[in-house]
Design goal:
single chain; 144 residues; alpha/beta; Glutaredoxin; 6 helices; globular; BrxB/BrxA
């Protein structure tokens, strides 16, 4: 019995998806879903660009999990998966200008506009606790 490469990859990354969706974060898997949610989200929206890289597992996803335990959190929680849902990720990145594409990364939007962004290089060199502190500070500033 053989398994297709695509099925193998889906099976391998599902736990990485589950790590965020188990927190109540909604996956946006198509450009249409991104376009439906991001520009029309009233209030604040967190958008996590998920990734298979080690820094996503070691710092980014755990940092997001810690931040979502804060008293103030965004009204909407979304994720796209770089390298897997390529078209959805590309569409989401259109809202993150002027920042270049990076993954993992984390965007905080308010009423459809980017107000805070954490790039990959800010994930790689920081602990989950530092990322959570950065996010909770942004939550305190923008999620009121």
């Amino acid at each position: 019995m053989s398994m297709s490469f695509d099925q193998y990859m889906r099976d391998m990354i599902q736990p990485m998806r589950d790590e965020l969706t188990s927190l109540g974060i909604q996956e946006l898997r198509t450009p249409e879903e991104v376009e439906e949610k991001l520009p029309t989200a009233k209030g604040t929206a967190l958008v996590v660009v998920n990734s298979v890289c080690g820094c996503a597992a070691e710092q980014c996803r755990p940092g997001v999990a810690k931040a979502l335990q804060h008293d103030l959190t965004p009204d909407h929680l979304y994720t796209v998966f770089a390298g897997q849902d390529k078209e959805a990720t590309a569409k989401a990145r259109e809202y993150f200008a002027p920042y270049p594409p990076s993954s993992p990364s984390i965007a905080l939007m308010k009423d459809g506009e980017l107000v805070h962004f954490i790039e990959r290089h800010q994930v790689e060199d920081r602990s989950a606790e530092e990322i959570a502190a950065d996010l909770t500070s942004a939550f305190d500033r923008f999620c009121r």
